[in-house]
């Protein structure tokens, strides 16, 4: 049980013993519900970075009740070193924080790490949302937000980053997804590797899935809804602006290795398509 308490106060000194006892109670409730009182398995570590103590505390407790380990940080400056030296499975970052805001934290993080990132934004921060996605965030949620929605999006992103489960003894091992070659584009899903004319292009998980969906059927128009389904694979609402921002970022990354890249075409009012000509 002590592990659950420690996870909620990681990186901070201000959470009260009373709040830690709340976390302990939730952890005990989960473990008591399982046969033999076996503690819940911690499936992934989530880093929470926000200067709002109430959000850090409530979200951390909610995640722990769902079986996650959590680390919390009250500003970007204290979080940066820890996230690089001991990367979590996913980070949830607030945009507006003291010392170092979430955008600057993401920029520095992307220089060294590709861990999935979800941004927390204010309702009116459309520019920050677009900028965050352009800098490599995987998703964003506007405040005030439902903890259930946040947890659903965390699970959706983690499912896309998890390695395939090991085969059961006696069963046939699952074949890795084949490399997808389309003209100058090569995508290796098993290694999450993308090249264009032999040059590496680094994509986030969401970007990879969107591009893979387009490249699987060159010339066929994919609507934004189809791209949402491919990228999020959950009953989660994502507006059109999110998909458009992902497409812009994918194009920008390819143009860093080929200034004339134009393989992703926009069909206004319809969607996008990939051309391998």
Polypeptide structure, described:
The chain is of the alpha/beta class. The chain folds into two domains: 2-161, Rossmann fold; 180-274, Winged helix-like DNA-binding domain superfamily/Winged helix DNA-binding domain (Arc Repressor Mutant, subunit A), CATH 1.10.10. The chain has helices at 2-9, 17-32, 53-65, 76-85, 102-110, 126-134, 147-161, 205-215, 224-232, 240-255, and strands at 45-49, 69-73, 90-94, 117-121, 139-142, 180-182, 185-188, 193-196, 199-200, 264-267, 271-274. The strands form three sheets. The protein has a five-stranded parallel beta sheet, with helices on both faces. Helix 1 packs across helix 2, helix 4 (76-85) runs parallel beside helix 5 (102-110) and helix 8 (205-215) packs across helix 10. The chain is elongated and about 55 Å long. It starts with a helix and ends with a strand. Mean pLDDT is 77; it is low at 1-42 and 164-173.
Write the topology of this structure.
Blueprint: H1 2-9, H2 17-32, E1 45-49, H3 53-65, E2 69-73, H4 76-85, E3 90-94, H5 102-110, E4 117-121, H6 126-134, E5 139-142, H7 147-161, E6 180-182, E7 185-188, E8 193-196, E9 199-200, H8 205-215, H9 224-232, H10 240-255, E10 264-267, E11 271-274
Parallel strand pairs: 1-2, 1-3, 3-4, 4-5
Antiparallel strand pairs: 6-7, 7-8, 8-9, 10-11
Helix pairs in contact: 1-2, 2-3, 4-5, 6-10, 8-9, 8-10
